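Recall that a protein's primary structure is simply its ordered list of amino acids. Everything else, from secondary elements to tertiary packing, is in principle encoded there. The following example makes that idea concrete.
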Amino acid sequence: MRPVRPVKPVTPARPVVLVKLGGSLITRKDRPDTPRPEVIDRLAREIAEAWPGLEAGLVVGHGSGSFGHAAAHDFGLLGDGASGGARHGSSESIAQIVRGAPLVQRKAAELHALVMAALREAGLPAFSIAPSSAATASEARILSFQAEPFAIALSGSLLPVTYGDVVMDREWGASILSTETVLAGLAESLPDHGWAVERAIWLGETDGIYDAEGVTVSRVSALGDPLRDAVGGSAATDVTGGMAHRLDTALALAGRGVRSWIGDGTREGTLAKALMGEEVGGTVVPAVA
């Protein structure tokens, strides 16, 4: 009789919350290289306020706003939420894009440094992870993504912080991975490392998603919802698709069992309350059962 091999118990994945601080929230997107330090500092303090009571791990991502987007636009770099990728086909355009990549990387890193400084000043154990060192892409879609550094940081009770960044791209030479794309990549990859995203918080300058009359839609639950066609991009320079890209990402995450909340980060206290699970208006994109 063969000996019975003991079955290794399955360890449940530990929960993670994702937070995206929109570029239009933390910078003046109509003015190149113009941060909003008072907003950045306030949001950092709100995260610090909620931090001791969080039972889940936390990953913060932020947009590049008027830092990365303006530079990316000047050199023709696009992200997967924007249109116009066909123009990247010639060797001349690829050469221009690659030449612009170091500048875009530097601009995005400048804003990231400001965010990191605010988080650390608020007493948070913030640990920076740059997508340019963790990912590669093809036509601005992730080819490879290293989620293990995030998982190790989470296991060490650190706060991983990432952002929209330029990455090397197999087809275009270089492209932009939006914060939405990076966070979606984490939702897909973290379960392989013992962590599972349970909800996502998306903060911008609006009280969620508006309908054609400018009224907040409290709930969006299907990719085919007519509202999707009415949602636009950003009013300022944005190479990653603005609110439409955010909604598409939230809907895709819903299919992975992740609940999203899209809300107004300009209101003091909103982020802290959202982190603690309180209802704070905005738009909910529920997880698909």
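Confidence is low (pLDDT under 50) at residues 83-88, 232-241. Residues 14-285 form a domain with the Carbamate kinase fold (CATH 3.40.1160.10).
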